[in-house]
Amino acid sequence: MVSAESWIAVPVVVPLAAALLSFLVRRGSLFISLAAAIINVLAAAILVNQFFVSGPAQYAVGGWDPPLGISLRTDGPALIMLVLTGLTGVAISLYAWGYFSFRIDQPARAGRPEKQERFFWPLWMLQLTGLNGLFLSGDIFNIYVTLELIGVSAAGLAALSGKSASITAALRYLLVSLLGSMSYLLGVVFLYKTYGVLDLGLLQKMAGPTPGVIAALAVMSVGLLLKTAIFPMHFWLPPAHANALAPVSAILSGLVVKGSFFLLFRLWFDIFSPALPHTAFSLMGALGAGAILWGGIQALRQQRLKLLIAYSTISQLGYLLIAFPLAFTGGNSQTWSAVLFMASGHACAKIAMFMSAGTIMLHLGHDRIRELAGIRAYLPVTAFAYAAAGVNLMGLPPSGGFIGKWMMLIASLSTHQWLWALVLLAGSFLAVAYVFRVVEQLFVIPPDAPFIERHPRAGLLEWPALILALISLLMGLIAPYPLRLLDTGMAPQVVQVIGG
Amino acid sequence: MSWENALIVAILMSSFLPGIIIFMLPEKSTGLRTSLNLFGALLKMTLVVIMDLAIYYGRVFHMRLELMEGVELFLNADPLSAMFATLSSVLWLLTTIYAVGYLEGSPNRSHFFGYFSLCVTVTIGIAMAGNLITFLLFYEMLTLATYPLIIHRGTDEALAAGRSYLFYAFGGGGVFLFAVIWLHTLAGPADFTSAGFTPQLIDNDAPVLRFIFLLMIAGVGVKAALVPLHGWLPRAMVAPAPVSALLHAVAVVKAGAFGITRIVLDVYGIKNIIQLGLLPWLMTLSSITIIWGSLRALQQDGLKQRLAYSTVSQISYIALGISLADHRLALIGGLVHLVHQGLMKITLFFCAGNLAETLGIHKISEMAGVGRRLPLTMAAFTIGAMGMIGIPPTIGFVSKWYLCLGGITAHNWWVIVVLVISSLLNGAYFLPIIITAWFGKQQGSWPREKNFGRFETHWMLLAPPLVTALAVIVAGIIANAQFSPLAWVEFVVQEYTR
To answer: Which neighbouring-strand residues pair with A37?
Structure first.
């Protein structure tokens, strides 16, 4: 049916088709999207398999080669992100199914949840298209297109809940996102003017430390940092993530910010690292340190669960930036691994947390942290999932977060960069504090706790969260597999740049 | 998979799987939960004894899983692991029986016993860890698995105790992680071995190695309740009695002391550590802890609080013995106390739990005349306390005897002075309890008395302390027999005194 190399187009084409279809049909959009999510994860598995057999692949859509055509390519980092979005995509789709059927069953909200669901599925599929496209794209202009797709569909998703707070937040989100993409596009124009190419591989061969390149990278980076909500450009994230519907918060916090971050990391390390001075990397590290501390402290001060989780995202994104100076000096492919472990562990954990928070909110009607005690009596799986995901945020073994932190600590101690190591540890202590603030409420059952009826379909809400939380918790034990993907999978030029 | 590996896996799974199943059981299925618990505990104990025999006859238990370059999980059951694993699994069986009786009819038992089983799984993991990374993995997991038990009652006091536990334990854990990684960058990945790291490292990095040692001891010292890192332990006494037993004798405090042992003997190695001049530091720390713990114990009126400070003091006998690691007798005294302290302290906590559960007594001042109401419990308590003081023929005497002999062969009079003072203090805080219990006159009625029919208390609460009290005497009398704890420790020590 599909030829071997064209599997690479499936993760982009199938969700896109599903988005259009589920927008057109009135009923069954749920099953169309679920099927697309499952095909997507299968395609990711097939691509990984092909990759081990025959190495990095490149595919020119429609047969047009770069610099003219659209090219898609696979390498280790892209495949890991693809698998991550694939797996979490299925989990999110299942959760959203449970979430909407729960809300539709509640008579108080007549009509509204149906409408929300109708727009949720197409937007979510567009989001998936954009993310997969971003990971697989081999040229900086197509990447711009995927960025816009991600930004616009994310803003649409954020606005779904229809409350005025969420509409304000979503509008601000849209503006920030457009600003970020514009800034990125400006950089693309600079580069195109200078070199006349858009292909990442070609740029990598040409780019040198000229002022033009540095200026281009600077504007692109600022745009991406804004979109990734890196401190101090994070202001838009907490309201947007905390006021959205639960499956949307999960998508935004777990996946969307990872997309722009991934691009940032690729640009800096895959393409332009020889062109950049050390101070630039240190500056990124400093932003990361600020994010870790500020996000952590803010998370400690929140009274609402979803806001706490949103601030913890800001803190956790900081870890990813600390990898920049460490990769520059301690540099080898291990830093890629550290970053991807951190990012994927965080994605799974954060999605699980927002799912749990959403389940709690559906049952209790609020998410005030002080009043959560007793939840475990009827939602034991959710309480456990939240705690298990918390282990990853704290960076305790054997989670993915631990593996990432371990590699970063090794890199910082072996190159005597003590400051980064201390920030990493301080961030972990903050995480312990803000995770257990909630866990201690989730784990106790006071004798006077009100009993709440469990929804019959609550399993669809609880189990996807638990499975993602367990993946994030046990990721360290399966570390050899993703690492093998990275070792064989590093495109040759990346090995040269980072290893040399 | 060789049968040795299969045995290791089976030992871990014998408590892990029952734990997972128990989590999923509905609250009401008491019978199934109890049978699962006891089945798992018995199976684990049997498997561990089989492993002990195999180790005694020279079998090697190695199991590796590489996570990434330079990082591998390594389970290695050597004689020292076997000692700790045996102690934990035997005491776990008794504690499980006790906990079933203690929590009868109380809510949230599936949650409780689930984490209870995870705790012992993780403790066995600590025992069998064959390198620092594996040790660290299980050590951090132990904190996570014990936390729900400490806050089990759900009161504000319990939550506060939980917070304090997390603060200390993760503070220590973070420092330990830092030290482990630092050593990793200097010495590379290394398994535990009695030779320690290569002596060449000392030529270049002696000051750094000393600092790392201090960080590591501080990291594991939190769980071992070294002064001034002991603050969490008395506070954690709000947890139910079986949890106290678990903290003090089976898992947490023991894991800390075991960590100190591993760091000195197998990470640094005795030769290196003497060359770095680190043993006097450890001796000073442990002496201070021994005396301070005893002094604080004297001031407590709460029975469990007094026992908790007594643990602070007693656990450091282990470190004291290790700090004379180059003298065989002292090393034996320290290591054997790991087992002996566990048996004695668990007896005392079981008894304290019986007093609380049967009569509602929590304070020493309420104990007058309790010996007539609970004769068997108080007999067990008396034996445990005698052991703590070091009166022959209990096992407490055996530990102190070896530590003293070690001090004499090392010409280290300081050790003897510390031992004498601390024994006097032990007497000063245990004898008054025993005297009021047996010879005091009951003042009014007991605070909250329950009747259990035939026996003085529930049989599941009575049997475990009687068994351990018996062990406190028997293991002391047969110390020279082939399979006493002492004999096993002599077998362990062969490796380190060649």
So the answer is: none
Nearest to B329 by CA among B403, B433, B221, B399: B403
Give dist(CA A174, CA A169) in Å, integer: 9
Q: List, in sequence order, the alpha helices (H) in A106-198.
A: 112-136, 140-159, 164-195
Pick from B314, B307, B312, B344: nearest CA to B485: B344
Residue A399 phi/psi, 5° resolution? Answer: -75, 165
b/e map of B370-392 (b: 16 or more CB within 10 Å)?
A: bbebbebbbbbbbbbbbbbbbbe
Closest CA to B243 of B109, B333, B398: B109
Q: How far is residue A93's CA from residue A89's CA, in Å, rounded to a whole number?
A: 6
Spatial CA neighbour of B479 closest among B322, B315, B332, B314: B332
Distance CA B261, CA B495 (A): 14
CB A458 within 8 A of CB A98: yes
Strand boundaries in B377-466, DSSP class E:
none
State how far the Cα of B394 lies from the Cα of B347, in Å rounded to an integer: 13
Nearest to A488 by CA among A45, A6, A56: A56
- Collect all residues with Cβ–Cβ distance below 8 Å to A173 and sequence separation of at least 6: A154, A155, A158, A236, A240
Q: Which residues of B touch A378 (CB under 8 A)?
A: none
How close are the terminal C-alpha atoms of chain A, in Å? Answer: 43
Residues on B contacting A at a C-beta cutoff of 8 Å: 23, 65-69, 71, 73, 107-108, 111, 136-137, 140-141, 144, 147-148, 151, 154, 158-159, 162-163, 166, 170-171, 173-174, 177-178, 181-182, 184-185
For B486, other C-beta atoms within 10 Å of its C-beta total: 24
Look at the block and give the residue holding tokens 């049967």: B358
CA-nearest residue to B162 within chain A is A440
Q: What was the ipTM of the complex prediction? A: 0.92
Task: Report the gap between the CA of A166 and the closest CA in chain B (Å).
Answer: 35
Sign of torsion over alpha carbons A22, A27, A33, A38: negative
Taking the C-alpha atoms of residue B73 and residue B81, their distance in angstroms, rounded to an integer, is: 16
B450 burial (CB, 10 Å; 0-12 / 13-18 / 19+) is exposed
The radius of gyration of chain A from alpha carbons, rounded to an integer in Å, stands at 21
- pLDDT of chain B, 498 residues: tens digit per residue: 788 889 999 999 999 999 999 998 888 888 999 999 999 999 999 999 999 999 999 888 888 888 877 788 999 999 999 999 999 999 999 999 999 999 888 888 888 999 999 999 999 999 999 999 999 999 999 999 999 999 998 888 999 999 999 999 999 999 999 999 999 999 888 889 888 888 888 888 889 999 999 999 999 999 999 989 999 999 988 889 999 888 888 889 999 999 999 999 999 999 999 999 999 999 999 999 999 999 999 999 999 999 999 999 999 999 999 999 889 999 999 999 999 999 999 999 999 999 998 999 999 999 998 999 999 999 999 999 999 999 989 999 999 999 999 999 999 999 999 999 999 999 999 999 999 999 988 888 888 888 877 788 888 999 999 999 999 999 999 988 888 899 999 999 988 887
- Report how far residue B181's alpha carbon sits from residue A489's, in angstroms, rounded to the nearest whole number: 28
Q: What is the DSSP string of A224-237?
A: HHHHHT-TTS-TTH
Contact B231, B171 (CB under 8 A): no
Q: Which of B376, B357, B356, B381 is nearest to B366 (CA)?
A: B356
- Distance between B394 CA and the closest CA of chain A, angstroms: 41
Of the candidates A394, A413, A429, the beta carbon closest to that of B185 is on A413
φ/ψ of residue B455, rounded to 5: -100, 175
Residue from B177, B208, B215 to probe the interface with A (highest A Cβ count within 10 Å): B177
Q: Which tokens hold the place of B186?
A: 């200097």
